[in-house]
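In the design runs reported in the main text, the only information available to the sequence generator was the tokenized backbone. The following block is the verbatim input for one such run; it is reproduced so that readers can re-run the procedure and compare outputs position by position.
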């Protein structure tokens, strides 16, 4: 079971099912919203319980982003047609046992940093 919350604690969440595809997204939207790149893990919607009321921003025709309306913590990424939700790895409590499996949208990454680990990179562009 994964548990987490926003910075102020107004939004908490639990994921009871398997967490899949831990990834770091370097696209321009994730960088602008998070202030750097954004790391998330996918959990099935049926296995995700959110307490509190996140605000949702329709970032594109394909997806929306969930955040705490009090402290602004960026917590969720939800593709409109997807059966799962991306949950911020940085918002999880305690050890997770998860490791990044890939970096995505690396062609869009900021020029101010390098990706120096050995994790697979996918260079698709937005």
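Verbatim output:
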């Amino acid at each position: 079971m994964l548990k987490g919350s926003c910075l102020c604690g107004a939004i908490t969440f639990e994921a009871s099912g398997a967490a899949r595809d831990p990834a770091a997204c370097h696209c321009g939207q994730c960088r602008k919203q998070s202030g750097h790149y954004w790391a998330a893990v996918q959990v099935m919607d049926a296995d995700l319980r959110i307490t509190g009321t996140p605000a949702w921003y329709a970032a594109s025709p394909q997806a929306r982003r969930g955040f705490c309306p009090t402290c602004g913590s960026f917590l969720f990424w939800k593709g409109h047609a997807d059966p799962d939700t991306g949950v911020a790895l940085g918002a999880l409590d305690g050890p997770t046992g998860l490791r990044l499996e890939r970096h995505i949208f690396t062609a869009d990454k900021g020029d101010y940093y390098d990706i120096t680990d050995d994790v697979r990179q996918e260079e698709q562009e937005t």
